[in-house]
Amino acid sequence: MHLEALRAYCLSLAAVTEDVKWDHDLCFSIGGKMFCVASMEPPFSFSFKVDAEDFQALSAMPGLSPAPYLARYHWVLANEGHTLSSQEIEHRVRESYELIKSKLPKKVLKEAGLL
C-alpha cells in the first residue's frame, strides 16, 4: 500500500481529519487524537496503534518495529519491506482508529457526530 491508498482509506473513516506535523508526516486523527501517521518523504513508512496483546508479535515481524517515541503507547512502525497485505493494513488502521475513538470523551464524540 502506498501513501495515497493509505490516505484514501483513512479519510474514508467517519470524522477523520488530516494535517501535516513535524514538516513531513501526514497525520490522521479522530477527535484531535492521532490514529495513523505516514511519512510523506521516501522511504514510505507509517505508524499505527495496536492493542497491548498484539504489540510484541507485530513488532517482531519483518519490516515492523516499535514506533519511535510512541512504542510505550503500543504504536508500531511499518517500514518498506513490511509483509502486511493491503487488507491487513486496513484492518490494523481501522483497529487503531477504533482504539483511539474508544478513549474519546462522549462530548468529543457527540461534536464529531459519532454519537
State the gist of this model:
With 115 residues, the protein is an alpha+beta fold. The protein contains four helices and six strands, in the order H-E-E-E-E-H-E-E-H-H. The protein has a single domain, classed as Aspartate Aminotransferase, domain 1 (Alpha-Beta Complex), CATH 3.90.1150.
Relative helix content: 25-40%
Give the uncertain stretches in residue-range form.
none
**Termini distance?**
31 Å
Mean pLDDT: 95
Can you name the CATH architecture?
Alpha-Beta Complex
Oligomeric status of the shown chains?
Answer: single chain
Strand content: 25-35%
Strand/helix succession: HEEEEHEEHH
Tell me the count of domains.
1
Number of helices: 4
InterPro entries: YjbR, YjbR-like_sf, YjbR/MT2646/Rv2570-like
Organism: Nibribacter ruber
Pfam family, one: YjbR
Protein name: MmcQ/YjbR family DNA-binding protein
Please write out the topology.
Blueprint: H1 3-12, E1 16-21, E2 25-30, E3 33-39, E4 46-49, H2 52-59, E5 64-66, E6 75-78, H3 86-102, H4 106-111
Antiparallel strand pairs: 1-2, 2-3, 3-4, 4-6, 5-6
